[in-house]
Amino acid sequence: MPIEYSLVQRGLPGTTTGPKKWYASVRSRGVTTERGMADKISRSTSLSSSDVKAALESLLQEIPRELAEGQIVQLGDLGSFRVTLQSDGTDTESAFTAAQIRKIKVNFVPSALFEQLLGQAVLRRVEAAVPAAERKAAKKG
């Protein structure tokens, strides 16, 4: 299956003036759940779907614990997870406190192999979805 994308026109962030350009935007085809992934993995391994689901659930519990301990979680050819922070700046080092930290974020960095495999995906341009407001207006008219 190809990755579908449509084109959207956007201006520069934070401004309403200036030229707008066209950019690609991925159109999602749906969501694959944890159960769906477990079923797919079980078909290509000797593990049952429930065994795979249990392993995935354990992984999902352990990753945040490791990250909270300050670890980078490296998952082989999948990639790595690491914590980053968003904070407000202060004029001096001594003025900085943990209160300046606004958000703890998790970054995923795909492995080179993961990026290579995804880079082989087929891309297909599709028509842009009609925004809900336009669909409602069209029905009324």
UniProtKB/TrEMBL annotation:
Q: Which segment of the chain is annotated as a signal peptide? A: none
Q: Note whether Iron occurs among the keywords.
A: no
Arranged from A to Z, the UniProt key words for this protein are:
DNA-binding
Is-annotated flag, keyword Transferase? no
Q: Which Pfam families match?
A: HU-HIG
Q: Where is the HU domain?
A: 1-120
- Matches recorded under InterPro entries: HU-HIG, HU_DNA-bd_put, IHF-like_DNA-bd_dom_sf
GO MF, one term, reads: DNA binding
Q: Taxonomically, which superkingdom?
A: Bacteria
Question: Which NCBIfam families does UniProt cross-reference here?
Answer: HU_rel
Listed name of the protein: DNA-binding protein
Q: Which organism is it from?
A: Hymenobacter jeollabukensis
